[in-house]
Amino acid sequence: MNDRANILLVEDEPNLHHSLKLNLSLEGYDVTSAFDGAQALQSLQDAYFDLVVLDLMLPNVDGITVLETLRLNKIDTPVLILSARANSASRIEGLRAGANDYLTKPFALEELLLRVQNLLAGRKNAGPATTDGYAFGGHVLQFSAQQAKLANGHTIELSKKEAMLLQLLVQHAGEVVTREKILQTVWGYQVFPTTRTIDNFILNFRKYFEEDSRNPRHFHAVRSMGYKFTP
After folding, report:
1. Residues 39, 63: contact at Cβ < 8 Å?
2. pTM score > 0.85 for this model?
3. Are strands 226-229 and 219-222 parallel, antiparallel or unpaired?
4. Are residues 114 and 12 in the same domain?
5. Are residues 121 and 168 in the same domain?
6. 10 Å Cβ neighbour count for 62?
7. Which of 201, 191, 193, 120 has its CA nearest to residue 166?
8. Which residues contact 158 (CB under 8 A, 6 or more apart)?
9. At 62, which CATH number?
10. In Å, how far are 65, 133, 227 from 198, measured between CA atoms?
């Protein structure tokens, strides 16, 4: 039986990538390579990983989108971000998107290996995940259960895509989320339905959660930009 941890390494700079892969392999880990965000998402669909080491500035699909897609699909694999962005806003963005740790470049190899070890140990000892939820306007959303308890006491079942889109909008409450980001994150980089599909989802949300669906308080379409959730 192979007890070696499986790590997905997502880094587009070749020299750094190969150096990290070599050192992680020498520590006894099985390392799978991805050099852009699209490769990373495909690898995460195809195989199980104990840890993802993720750069943020990637070709095709950026690291934040990879991370958000992971979490919206209820994949709780620990993620260690590696980034040249050292400012607090980037750290907060990464952690808010679901990262477990954030390490800025340049970094000491020993520190990276220690953080990897700690994240893997934490995953091994972790208990069962708790159900995630969010409340607004008297409604309670349960993303993992794909349910919403409405202010009137009724409970409705949500489709997987509805729950994912709601969670993405809630995570970016007060911000405009572009159509491109929604399509890429919720539907996947290989499947792009028409933007009318998103419009229909927003119309459904207004029917579920708005007192007056024609004058919405919470779910807004921003012309030529995207969509916004206001708590």
Report:
1. no
2. no
3. antiparallel
4. yes
5. no
6. 17
7. 201
8. 146, 147, 148, 166
9. 3.40.50.2300
10. 18, 22, 9
Q: Tens of pLDDT along 104-138? A: 999 999 999 999 999 998 766 554 444 478 999 99
- Say if residue 37 is in the same domain as residue 137: no
Each residue's pLDDT tens digit, 11-29: 999 999 999 999 999 999 9
User: Which of 66, 51, 57 shows the shortest CA–CA distance to 16?
Assistant: 57
Taking the C-alpha atoms of residue 40 and residue 64, their distance in angstroms, rounded to an integer, is 12
**Three-class SS state of 205:** helix
Domain that holds residue 184: 133-229
Measured N-to-C along each axis, helices 109-125 and 14-26 cross at an angle, to the nearest 10 degrees, of: 60
Answer yes or no: is 218 within a domain: yes
- Which tokens sit at 69? 């897609």
Q: Where are the alpha helices (DSSP H) in the chain?
A: 14-26, 37-46, 63-72, 88-97, 109-125, 160-171, 179-182, 195-209
